[in-house]
């Protein structure tokens, strides 16, 4: 009996040691605990789709998942933003407030042009376009936006999220030059033109003719008197 009891004690000690070792060994993280975000930066006009491959975005983690709800991380706790992913307008307004909070506090994020962000933990992420993108005379600027990892789309949990930023077309106005009005006068050498010069000869022709007539009359009268 004593041998049986000793064996049981040995087995119990071995089992206890094994349990302790299992508790000390860190469990591997499940692949579903990390996700990614792919940004498809494209714009289109009436006939062509343009891929904005060199568009740089900066990513900030602004939220995390706590107590079955999304909450702000400590750095953004004073931003006053409340997440409401059921209202698109409220979500857009929250992104603008978070962008301003980033600028006011000079936070640094992850900037890149590859548009693929990998190994992201469960959280809320803010994306801000760093610089405007120009194609020919067209300038494109994306509004700030926020994305959750994972995303809930039509009841499905998606860890590898694909997002399409909304760009505003800020066209460069055409450069116009102020040209003087075209003269209606024919072009040519100024020396060949006949200018309307005012000579100052305003003599009244009728007055001169009258004086000449009176002079002739007086001359004829005087001549008759001489002959008499």
Could you write a compact summary of the structure shown?
By secondary structure, this protein is of the alpha+beta class. The chain has three helices and 15 strands.
How would you describe this protein?
The chain has 228 residues and is α+β, with helices and mostly antiparallel strands. 28% of the residues lie in helices and 30% in strands. It contains 3 helices and 15 strands. Strands 4, 5, 6, 8 and 11 form a 5-stranded antiparallel β-sheet that branches. Strands 7-1-14 form a 3-stranded mixed β-sheet, with no helix packed on it. A hairpin with a 2-residue loop joins strand 12 and strand 13. The protein is rod-shaped and about 190 Å long. It starts with a helix and ends with a helix. Residues 21-31, 183-187 and 191-200 have low confidence and may be disordered.
Describe how the helices and strands are arranged.
Blueprint: H1 2-24, E1 34-39, E2 42-44, E3 49-51, E4 57-66, E5 69-72, H2 88-105, E6 110-112, E7 116-121, E8 123-129, E9 133-135, E10 138-142, E11 145-149, E12 151-153, E13 156-158, E14 160-163, E15 167-169, H3 205-227
Parallel strand pairs: 1-14
Antiparallel strand pairs: 1-7, 2-3, 4-5, 4-6, 4-8, 8-11, 9-10, 10-15, 12-13
